[in-house]
């Protein structure tokens, strides 16, 4: 089946991806966040004090991209950079008080997004979809692993 066929599964997955991106950005704009910032905030929430290099690896972006993101987020006081205690050449990145508050807002946004996306699904349908999507993720991950 071709990607151009609107009934193809791949077409539907790309359409879902685009719609989710659009809807989530609409919600992020309400709290003055750019699309790439929520993943960075969640990583810091779970791994405070990591280095910029580690952040780049976790986000799968280049260190210069992370540096730009960090500067922008420091400007809005969402994060703080501090020198490493043992190696002053290294900066570690932390959530600020405002960043921790933003995490709470993001949890509300994702809860709202989940309600919108799965509004007409019952629990059994959600579980079936979860199983199918986990298979899709596994297939893609295996394909990527074979390339290495």
Mean pLDDT, to the nearest integer, reads: 93
Portion in strands: 5-15%
The helix/strand series, from N terminus to C terminus, equals HHEHHEEHH
Gyration radius, to the nearest Å? 19 Å
List the uncertain runs: none
Could you give a short description of this structure?
With 148 residues, the chain is mostly helical.
Structural overview:
The chain is mainly alpha-helical and 148 residues long. It is 66% helix and 8% strand. The chain has helices spanning 9-29, 37-46, 52-59, 63-75, 97-117, 123-147, and strands at 50-51, 79-83, 91-95. A three-stranded antiparallel sheet has the order 1-3-2. The protein is globular and about 55 Å long. 11% of the residues are buried.
Q: Features of this protein?
A:
148 residues; mainly alpha; 3-stranded antiparallel beta sheet; 3 strands; 66% helix; 8% strand; globular
Q: How would you summarize the topology of this molecule?
A:
Blueprint: H1 9-29, H2 37-46, E1 50-51, H3 52-59, H4 63-75, E2 79-83, E3 91-95, H5 97-117, H6 123-147
Antiparallel strand pairs: 1-3, 2-3
Helix pairs in contact: 1-5, 2-5, 3-4
